[in-house]
Amino acid sequence: MDSNDLEGLTPNMNTSSPTAGERPVVRVKELSERDRRRLLMHFLALDDSDRLLRFGTILPDELITRYVQRLDFSRDTVFGVYDANLALLGVGHLAFTPRETSSILHNATLKARVAEFGVSVASNARGMGIGSRLFERAAIRCRNEDVDTLYMHCLSSNQTMIHIAAKAGMEIHREYGEADAYLKLLPASPGTMLAEAVEEQFATFDYGFKANTKAALKWWNRLPGRKAK
Ligand SMILES: CC(C)(COP(=O)(O)OP(=O)(O)OC[C@H]1O[C@@H](n2cnc3c(N)ncnc32)[C@H](O)[C@@H]1OP(=O)(O)O)[C@@H](O)C(=O)NCCC(=O)NCCS
């Protein structure tokens, strides 16, 4: 991924660790079947230490491929943030499970389902708020899906993720080098429904704009006499 592609995030973005005030606008879009190849590219680009942090083990390429092939978009929700070239800078996977089948959360709620969240951000796009925005979007989706318990598992050494979890008000339990984080969520409201619908509309517009720009550039570069970039 070219660092220029990060410009797709915002026109005025500064790539050297922007402070909270300088952060780009991050559009989080719900992903679908057509994103499977991009998801694979995103996960395969994670190095061993990121794979360990994301999956709890250094998943080899074959198992990552299988994980992506098996993602069920009708059962779970996958969110993403695209760069200007429509590659995925960040991915959040929200897996819904019936309460009884969750060994960890079956006593945590009376709701029918609980949710587990996993997230990864491309190494060259960190510190811009993408991970936090993916998490916030996942939390709002849980509320709108009548799920009041959001769970996340990570290594205790994962200070960045623990910081994001603590900032969101998650209760964090550390044991044997691992950390479990729980967030109790309020019920849905007209405000949460509207917020999610508006965010998805903006993200869809942003995606369309990037897709059209990409297609136009491709066409332009193919014109006779132009050197392809
Ligand atoms: C964890 C991860 C998703 C964070 O993504 P990100 O886009 O960089 O996160 P954000 O930019 O939204 O937020 C990072 C926050 O952590 C803080 N942070 C960064 N490094 C930190 C550290 N070593 N200790 C404490 N906080 C740290 C940042 O200051 C920022 O906080 P702020 O928003 O209050 O300023 C990303 O680092 C990643 O993909 N890691 C590998 C996979 C992984 O660990 N997944 C989580 C397990 S499911």
What does this structure look like?
The chain is an alpha+beta fold and 229 residues long. The chain has one domain (3-8, 26-221): 3-Layer(aba) Sandwich (Aminopeptidase), CATH 3.40.630.30. The chain is 37% helix and 21% strand. It is built from six helices and seven strands, in the order E-H-H-H-E-E-E-H-E-H-E-E-H. It has helices spanning 36-44, 48-55, 61-70, 130-144, 159-167, 190-222, and strands at residues 29-30, 77-82, 88-98, 113-121, 149-155, 171-175, 178-184. It has a seven-stranded mixed sheet with strand order 1-2-3-4-5-7-6, sandwiched between helices. Helix 1 (36-44) runs antiparallel to helix 3 (61-70) and helix 4 (130-144) packs across helix 6 (190-222). The longest helix has 33 residues, at 190-222. The protein starts with 28 loop residues before the first strand and ends in a 7-residue tail after the last helix. The chain binds coenzyme A. Coenzyme A binds next to helix 2, strand 4, helix 4 and helix 5. The site of coenzyme A (COA) has 23 residues, from helix 2, strand 4, helix 4 and helix 5.
Overall mean confidence score, pLDDT = 88
CATH architecture identity? 3-Layer(aba) Sandwich
Strand content: 15-25%
Helix content: 25-40%
Described by the principal axes of the CA atoms, the overall outline is globular
Spatial strand order of the main sheet: 1-2-3-4-5-7-6
CATH superfamily: Gcn5-related N-acetyltransferase (GNAT)
Strand pairing plus helix content: what structural class? alpha+beta
* Cα-atom radius of gyration: 18 Å
* Order of SSEs: EHHHEEEHEHEEH
Can you summarize the main beta sheet?
A: 7 strands, mixed
- Reported by name, the CATH topology is Aminopeptidase
> Which segments are poorly predicted (pLDDT under 50) over 5 or more consecutive residues?
10-16
CATH C-level name: Alpha Beta
Domain unit count = 1
**How many helices in DSSP terms?**
6
Bound ions, cofactors and other small molecules, one mention each: coenzyme A
For the secondary structure, the number of strands is 7
Distance between the termini: 14 Å
Organism: Noviherbaspirillum saxi
Protein name: GNAT family N-acetyltransferase
Keywords: Transferase
GO molecular function: acyltransferase activity, transferring groups other than amino-acyl groups
